[in-house]
Design a protein that fits this description.
By secondary structure, the chain is of the alpha/beta class. It is built from 27 helices and 21 strands. About 40% of the residues are buried. Pyridoxal-5'-phosphate (PLP) binds next to helix 25 and strand 10.
Length: about 725
């Protein structure tokens, strides 16, 4: 599974490092390091420059949360849940401080408490967390409902309203109507610097930057031109400097005229943060998750450190050293916060995170992929194709359990240019792992996802007329293949009656019809009746093409055959053959007769380690339901693989075997979800740690996938495609 991450392990290191810098800037707000030296200097640092820190966090969250192309409610829910959890924990941690401050003795406790929890935070800096939740959700819906321009405009209006309750409040006060409006507002929230007026614009910005970035990356993938990168980065840096200078000037001016009520919101703050973030995005490298975690904890914990250091100083009479000098105080708080956070992250990493490790190794059960055989099969299939016909590799369902990205990347390397997937998610994953050729989605995609289809340059199957209309209505130009139903009666336009509809679709403005195809449903059979039916299907399909031609329509690329279509009807002359199961070197059933006999080699083997050997005396049973009772003293080996891994439970009690040491060992008792038992009484020298073969070869013996499939009452395609994500792959 490693190849999947190739090219994507370039993480946003610049952002990760700046998170820590931003957290330190926020410490300056609460410790005023320059206060002893220059009042103006302190104002510039803590009331203007450091104000970029929280918006930077908002943009970062928006960057990872919001995308026009990928709207999953789950993403927002996860974000809200996580932030709320952190907020809850922070409220609890700071309860003692609240108690100490006499917080709970204030008048109108309940309304104030609600107001603080929703808007202002129960302690100085905690407002950031509810603001993230509210601002993130507002921005998420704005972008979902409107396009970016409108979403941004809406968020900007909110920000503008916020400005006049914050840094520009002095102007507001001059008008009675305005000031009474804001007076009302301040009943609900102490500041306009909150989730409604302040945060949304930054979240929208983050989403916008993310989408622009994705678009650029995708273009790069497809067109392979990546010239003006450096110039861009310099430009962002310069613009950031400029905006920062303007913001400083703005802040000092407002301060000079005493216009500010509060000092969080400036006109030049959003552009300043925008260019800062864009600039930082250019610095790519290893992912630094720990930096992210450390900066979050520093942010949350530093007020506590201020309290602790003050208490400590008082206790040991060290105020003159630790508290009185503003710079030393700042450094002490910073050092304490960082040490605490790093220790917390380190401990969490040691004890909390272990379970997250991914299992892609071979210590349990795994699938072994032979890429040489894959290349061999691709070559054999290609050489069986008529001139002008290309191989379209069907890699749906994890490439029939073989691992989609690895298989596709390898096929791409040996020159396969067309791929077929079942779903848009699979298509997107193929693009993300660097596949450039044509990717056809064979199944249904919600028409609302047209933009994603286009963005990832996928080709969608038109499954019927209504679907085509709905896709057209999206107003977004997408590539499509039209599917014709010639007798399978699953997906596709009806070939008999709807010529008009088919013509109508060809006239649609936003659908670029690059292909037209049909699917055969009994091509695997050479029975007379089935051959007749298949020939009818083929004739129907060509009939449609002929009529299209008659109407003066240029017929796009055509394809009919899947694996069996090619093997039994090799004479057809199409532009593609959509080969799945044959590409993986197996046929659907063990005794399949086909017209064309190709020398295909199985690509996949399924193996598991012997994890336990146990002695079972005669008369004792093994497994659920006690279906197996030992008729002699037996040695039973336990293999850590079961039906949850895709190994069919149906094989229980059906005289099935695995290979150990080149010997046949019968599966005994019922196959469990995660384990199965085999009888190794007759096999010499079996040891714990040995490898058993469930599908594949061991020595001179072979267990073929089609045989296993038929024993379990199914076909190879199902058996392989169910070898789930839980198995490691090598
Ligand atoms: C899955 C699929 C194929 C591939 O079939 P195989 O028999 O595995 O070659 C081809 N075409 C369509 C439409 C499919 O759904």
């Amino acid at each position: 599974m490693k190849a999947e991450n190739k090219g994507h392990d370039k993480s946003y290191t610049g952002i990760d490092f700046f998170r820590l810098a931003a957290a330190l800037l926020i410490i300056t707000i609460h410790t005023s390091p320059l206060a002893d030296f220059s009042e103006t200097g302190d104002f510039i640092l803590t009331r203007i420059a450091a104000r970029a820190a929280v918006p930077f966090f908002f943009v970062t969250s928006g960057f990872f949360l919001i995308s026009r192309y990928n709207y999953q409610m789950g993403k927002l829910c996860a974000f809200v849940k996580k932030t709320a959890l952190i907020y809850g924990a922070a409220i609890l941690i700071y309860l003692p401080v609240n108690l100490y401050n006499g917080y709970f003795k204030m008048d109108n406790l309940l309304p104030n408490l609600i107001k603080d929890i929703v808007f202002d935070g129960t302690l100085y800096h905690l407002w950031y967390l509810p603001a993230s939740i509210i601002g993130g959700a507002i921005a998420w819906y704005l972008v979902k409902k409107l396009d970016y321009k409108k979403a941004f405009a809406a968020a900007a209006v909110l920000y503008l309203m916020g400005l006049f309750g914050d840094s520009y409040y002095g102007l507001t006060e001059k008008s009675l109507i305005c000031s009474s409006f804001y007076a009302l507002l301040f009943q609900i929230s102490d500041y306009t610097r909150n989730g409604i007026f302040f945060a949304p614009v930054f979240f929208v910005m983050g989403g916008f930057i993310a989408d622009r970035k994705e678009e650029a990356a995708c273009n790069e993938l497809i067109c392979a031109d990546s010239e003006p990168r450096r110039a861009e980065s310099v430009k962002d840096g310069v613009c950031f400097g400029l905006m920062l200078a303007l913001m400083l000037a703005e802040g000092l001016t407002l301060h000079h005229f005493q216009i500010q009520r509060h000092d969080s919101m400036y006109v030049f703050l959003p552009p300043c943060v925008y260019f800062l973030f864009s600039f930082l995005l250019q610095f790519r490298g290893r992912r630094r998750v720990w930096l992210r975690d450390v900066s979050l904890i520093v942010y949350l914990i530093h007020p506590m450190m201020i309290v602790i250091i003050r208490m400590f100083a008082k206790l040991f009479s060290m105020q003159s050293l630790l508290v009185d000098n503003s710079v030393v105080h700042f450094l002490a708080v910073t050092a304490a916060s960082i040490v605490f956070s790093a220790a917390a992250v380190g401990l969490w990493g040691r004890f909390g995170r272990k379970r997250k490790r991914h299992n892609t190794d071979t210590d349990r059960a795994y699938v072994e992929i032979n890429l040489e055989n894959l290349a061999h099969n691709a070559e054999v299939l290609r050489s069986a194709l008529p001139r002008g016909c290309e191989l379209m590799a069907v890699v749906k369902a994890e490439a029939y359990g073989h691992g989609m990205c690895e298989i596709a990347i390898h096929l791409d390397k040996i020159g396969v240019k067309a791929f077929a997937a079942a779903t848009i998610e699979e298509g997107i994953r193929l693009r993300r792992c660097g596949i450039r050729g044509e990717i056809l989605i064979l199944g249904y995609t919600a028409p609302e996802r047209a933009r994603e289809i286009r963005k990832y340059d996928l080709t969608q199957t038109l499954i019927d007329y209504d679907y085509a209309c709905r896709l057209e209505e999206q107003g977004c130009t997408v590539k499509v293949h039209m599917k014709i139903d010639t007798g399978m009666h699953r997906l596709g336009f009806d070939s008999d009656f709807n010529m008009e509809e088919i013509l109508c679709v060809f006239a649609m403005e936003h659908l670029v019809i690059n292909g037209i195809y049909t699917h055969l449903c009994v091509a695997d059979s050479l029975e007379e009746e089935d051959v007749w039916f298949t020939k009818q299907q083929i004739a129907n399909f060509y009939g449609v093409l002929k009529q299209l031609k008659k109407q003066g329509i240029h017929v796009p690329k055509i394809h009919i055959q899947s694996s069996y279509g090619l093997l039994n009807y090799p004479e057809l002359k199409c532009n593609y053959v959509r080969a799945g199961v044959a590409l993986y070197g197996v046929l659907s059933t063990p005794d399949a007769q086909t017209k064309l006999q190709l020398n295909l080699r199985p690509v996949l083997a399924l193996k598991a380690k012997v994890i336990l050997l146990r002695f079972v005396p005669q008369g004792e049973s093994v497994g659920y339901g006690r279906t197996f009772v030992a008729d002699r003293d037996s040695v039973i080996a336990i293999l850590p693989v079961g039906y949850a891994d895709g190994f069919p439970r149906n094989l229980s009690g059906r005289d099935s075997y695995v290979l150990i040491n080149g010997n046949w060992a019968p599966i005994v008792g019922r196959i469990c979800m995660d384990q199965l038992a085999v009888d190794v009484t007759d096999i010499a020298d079996v040891e714990v740690g040995m490898t058993a073969t469930l599908i594949g070869s061991d020595g001179s013996e072979t267990i073929a996938a089609p045989a296993v499939a038929v024993d379990s009452g199914s076909i190879t395609n199902e058996l392989l495609s169910r070898l789930g994500s839980r198995l490691g792959r090598i």
